Amino acid sequence: MASVSFSALFLSVILQTALLCSIGSSQTTGFTSIDCGSDSVSNYIDENGIQWLSDSNLMSEGTSVVLSDTNISRVVSTMRLFNGSQSKYCYNLSNSAVRTDDFLLVRATIFPGVNPPYSPRNPDGYFRFTMIIDADQWWDVKVRSGDDTRLTYDAYVRAKRSHIDVCFARITPNGDAPFISALELRPLPNTLTSTTIMNLTDRFLVCLEHANVGVPQSGPSYVRFPDDTLDRYWTSYKAPDSNLSSTQETIKMSTDSEKLPEKILQNSLTGSPGLTLSWTELEADVAHYVQFYFSEVDPFVNASGMRLFNIFQSGELVTFDGPVDVFATVGANAAFSCPTIVTSNAAGAMEFTFTPLANSTFPAFLAAFDLFQLRGSNSLTPTSISE
Ligand SMILES: *[C@@H]1O[C@H](CO)[C@@H](O)[C@H](O)[C@H]1NC(C)=O
Ligand SMILES: *[C@@H]1O[C@H](CO)[C@@H](O)[C@H](O)[C@H]1NC(C)=O
Ligand SMILES: *[C@@H]1O[C@H](CO)[C@@H](O)[C@H](O)[C@H]1NC(C)=O
Ligand SMILES: *[C@@H]1O[C@H](CO)[C@@H](O)[C@H](O)[C@H]1NC(C)=O
Ligand SMILES: *[C@@H]1O[C@H](CO)[C@@H](O)[C@H](O)[C@H]1NC(C)=O
Ligand SMILES: *[C@@H]1O[C@H](CO)[C@@H](O)[C@H](O)[C@H]1NC(C)=O
Ligand SMILES: *[C@@H]1O[C@H](CO)[C@@H](O)[C@H](O)[C@H]1NC(C)=O
């Protein structure tokens, strides 16, 4: 059985100065993009057509630091360092699209640079500080000093009012001073399953990964805006051509409420004949929301039951409404998704197996998935949802 392990917890985007795509200056309504620590005249449009503003009018605390690193993208070349004595430092983020009960993606970008502004307290060389959204604990940041990977932390939240407070704090009074390179807001349409889950559970979602699986070797290392209108960062998992099912045909997206970029659904990883997806280093015994994305792009699969598989999580059937049959459900070259909520085990691991039925002539497959942790103060009984 083909097996793919995922342990990367955050979307780490290797710095690239190369242009992903070149588009005109088409600033998208509702995007707020703050370049922290940059000077007040530094408002600019980047290579993706996104307009950046300095945080100088939003934040009077902290120190603006210019990194000495060369050959890094402009947005991470400055940071704001909160080395004062306040217990926390908050940005009040807003734009014309933020209203009470709206859903938003909140993104923090953290990049210590090769020559960070100070040395971490802990001799293990990691900076540690914490992030808070409104009153909710978001995530404890742990980032290695000298790492030239920029870390992006995404959360999906529901606005409690017409602005969102994003705060940074030391973990202990004596702990590392927080620092931040960029803060972003992106509106999320309420057609997404994730927004329904936030409503049902009264939780917010910490995004651990948007994964584009089954990408050809020549494919991009990630996909984001403008291919993804919501500006999610999809990390590529490349595979040899022999393990892929690919098409150049148009994918019918009218069946997709999740607003996926079409190119993500044009390539799938195929199993042999099953597929195993496993994660380690998750928080133990915590509810996670996972959504799998599919599109039947193999022209030889042209009847119901030809690619038929069940999904199990730790031996338990996730697809209890019946096996996945993408062709039977939406036809060829059309988007299909399958959400589920499961709990990580006591060791912080989670594993899914995709097992074809005995009469399935084609192997299991997968085009993409999202992995989120549900966070919030209320207790929640894990449930499974199948579509
Ligand atoms: C690719 O397919 C081969 C043979 O079917 C299998 O052994 C291998 O594990 C697959 N690789 C991936 C990355 O799925
Ligand atoms: C700068 O980065 C680009 C893209 O990563 C790379 O191709 C180039 O060699 C780098 N230049 C220097 C001077 O390091
Ligand atoms: C904060 O850091 C800046 C830049 O390194 C430094 O100039 C300043 O003295 C520091 N402030 C405190 C309170 O440590
Ligand atoms: C935050 O920003 C919003 C919108 O600009 C404003 O209405 C609100 O008063 C601000 N809140 C604080 C605490 O500054
Ligand atoms: C979420 O709940 C709010 C208020 O309770 C409601 O207005 C909204 O339509 C709901 N959205 C979704 C996507 O269920
Ligand atoms: C399905 O594909 C096979 C193999 O290409 C072909 O022989 C058959 O005619 C197709 N059936 C339909 C209903 O299109
Ligand atoms: C394949 O097997 C399943 C269960 O064993 C059965 O429900 C289904 O009808 C079969 N499909 C075909 C096309 O024979």
TrEMBL record:
Keywords: Signal
Predominant location category: membrane
Entry keyword Signal: yes
Location(s), subcellular: Membrane
Signal sequence range: 1-26
GO CC entries: membrane
Residues of the Malectin-like domain: 34-373
InterPro entries with a match to the protein in the record: Malectin-like_Carb-bd_dom
Topology class, membrane: Single-pass membrane protein
Record keyword Signal present: yes
PANTHER family membership: OS07G0107800 PROTEIN-RELATED
Name listed for the protein in its UniProt record: Malectin-like domain-containing protein
Naturally occurring in which organism (per UniProt): Ceratopteris richardii (Triangle waterfern)
